[in-house]
Amino acid sequence: MGASSSTARASPEAHERREQETLASAALALPLLRAAFSRSAAGPAALPDALAPPRAYFRLSGSPLLPHFHDLLERLGPAVASLFFADGAAAGADGDAGWVPFLKGFNRCCARVSASRSLALLLRVYLAACAAAGAPCGVQFQPDEGGDEEGKVVGELAPEEIAVFLWMCWVMAWSGSAPKAAAGDGGDKSEPVAVLLPDVTHLVLSALVSAGAVADDESVWGWQISTGGKGVKVQEFTSWVLATASGLGNCLSQYVQERLRSLAADSTEENSVSTDNTTFDTSDVYLLTRGRAWAIVLSLRNKLSEKFLSGSVIGMDAEDLLYRSSVHGKGLSRFWFGVEGYNGPMLILLSAFSKGGVKNVDSDRRWLIGVLTEEGFESKDTFYGSSGFLCATHPIFRMLPPSGKEKNFVYSHLRPQIRVYEANPKPVGLAFGGTVGNERIFLDEDFSKVVVRHHAVDKTYQHGSLIPNQGYLPVEASVLDVEVWGLGGEATRRQQDVYKKRENIFSEQRRKVDLKTFGNWEDSPEKMMMDMISDPNRVRREDR
């Protein structure tokens, strides 16, 4: 009775505070938020500076960076603070006066909302940062009649603007993984380290092809962001993000949470990257580039996205490379030596060029496809597997998840050591999707030829083209390189090492021959046969 009456007498302000705290605690712990709120009271620029990404010099490999990009990043923190935390700053950060407005701003950008709403908020941040930096932006915000909270983002994004927007999102994801300056540096502000931005051409081209701004034909070969061309409407861009790069919607929420967590952890740390770390400026040397790894991050919704996020920031760990045909040699047997015993998720990347056309060996005609498996390989003459993804990574990015109709995810059949007659021998090689003899992707035993068929033959993976301008007929291509990355972590690698050591011991034991097991030569059937051959007419008495 007393509890109900006290609840009824609770002031509207207390009720609103509890409601906002409950909503905010679902994203970040309240003590951490309270610490970040207290430290944001150091001055009017404390929160905008805390919401800014770490200081660094960003550049592109082989081409100049688009203008205004660094100016845009400098305005990113103030843009987030003005859009979501302006009420808290107006109320004052002293005491509890600004606590509820601070929570409201945090919930506006970090609370669980629909993917389209999250993307709209991210586009508003991009619009505000571009306006403050004087950068060109074809996006406009139209508020509703009721106020400024709700509204819609309209306009058109040019190809260069899409690239800048994607790079801004990558920097937001990078800021959570960038190592901070070492403790004890004090107030010494070192020069920012150079950071190599990933190539996002395949993502920009994917958005343009999805919207119909670029045709999925010969025009995609050699396409560059600087080429320009027709833009994409915000509605079409939103549809592409929801279908292909849904992870973009989480960039703002994760970025704000990470920056507030950093503010609460140490108010004295420098907002810069340590110059001792030079791994951010490493060039891509594998098929799995940092740009392709980040594209996979945006399309996945499972725990593997963290592994690829690390690879998109500092590059993949070379210890996770299980097989590379240019290093270990081509062929199914070499491939099997690298992946045997690895019982974990793997990414297989395949680079090839089609045999059709006059200049089919031109590097600009090279295309890449990938397969993400959830489990290890087995030598079987039938399909197996529980889940998997197909993806096109160059020149256009597409991710094809399972359709749920069939489970023909992986086919890996080695040539049997003991050969017997088979009326209908099963094909030897690797395959993904489709059926035996009519696979969607089939890689032959020598890793010299790959066949890619139309999605009509496959009910395991969703429909979609893996190669630009892919028709209904099978496409036969020459293989250039194959990579296999293990994604199971250190524990899975150790299990594979134990498996290989055990198999080596068994192989050594099979090679050794113990002569004692053959018995006495005088009593052996081999000696009797030799004696009969030497003198077949010799009379022998039968031993009874």
UniProtKB/TrEMBL annotation:
Check the UniProt entry and state the signal peptide residues, or none: none
The record's section on Pfam families has:
TLD
InterPro entries noted in UniProt: TLDc_dom
Can you give the residue ranges of the TLDc domain? 295-488
SMART domains in the record: TLDc
Coiled coil residues, start to end: none
The UniProt entry, under PANTHER family, shows: NUCLEOLAR PROTEIN 7/ESTROGEN RECEPTOR COACTIVATOR-RELATED, TLD-DOMAIN CONTAINING NUCLEOLAR PROTEIN
* Protein name in UniProt: TLDc domain-containing protein
Q: What is the lineage of its organism?
A: Eukaryota, Viridiplantae, Streptophyta, Embryophyta, Tracheophyta
